[in-house]
Amino acid sequence: MKRPLLFLTLLSLPLWFAPPAGAGGIDFNVHGGLDVAGSFDLDVLSSSADPGFTLGLEVMFDVPVVELGAGAEYGFSRDSGVAGADVSYWHFYGIGRVFVFSRFYLAARLGYYDLSVDDIISGNVGNDYALGLGAGVGILPKLKVELFFNNITSSLDYDTWAARVVYTF
Q1: What is the DSSP letter of 159?
Q2: Rounded Cα distance, 9 and 102, in Å
Q3: Which strand (E) or helix (H) includes residue 27?
Q4: What is the mean pLDDT of each run of 10 residues along the chain (169 residues)?
């Protein structure tokens, strides 16, 4: 009984990584950004966050009028304003971009965050979901600029505005 199941699983493996029907191809994006404004909320304490830098990679499927994909982003350590505690994160997400006009688009990200606080509070403060809503514009054929509002929900909530530059390979 196990062999047919294993065979069907191996046979279907290429379908797991195939682009959606009608897709024009696969793109790889690298992006860098700046969290320009943000705030942390720990129920009993709220604080403004210092600006911080992000760096990430995305795999995108081109479907007519839409780009769908997945990505990973690292938020470099930034001061939380709470007694010198620095906050950093990993973000793993699904993303969609819907092109409204030829170069202008709306975007949404939904994913999983792993926030950690260094220095005074050592360790992880929560793993939970994050939602990002934004818009962007293609400046050159391989270069985009985006603006996102992100809401990270964990034991340490983090709301931020982020500007990103996206380069497509």
Answers
A1: E
A2: 40
A3: strand 25-41
A4: 46 45 76 82 67 94 88 86 72 93 92 72 63 95 94 73 94
Cβ count within 10 A of residue 99: 15
- Single-letter residue type at 154: S
Indicate the DSSP class of residue 65: T
- Chain center to CA of 58: 9
Nearest to 31 by CA among 143, 149, 138: 143
Q: What share of the chain is helix, strand, coil (3-state, %, to 5)?
A: 10, 65, 25
Q: Which of 117, 107, 121 is nearest to 150 (CA)?
A: 107
Considering only CA atoms, which of 23, 30, 102 is closest in space to residue 64? 23
Distances from the Cα of 51 to the Cαs of 12, 21, 101, in angstroms? 45, 40, 31
| φ and ψ of 27, to 5 deg | -115, 150
Among the listed residues 26, 10, 114, 14, the one whose alpha carbon sits nearest the alpha carbon of residue 70: 26
Beta-carbon count within 10 A of 157 CB: 17
This prediction's pTM = 0.77
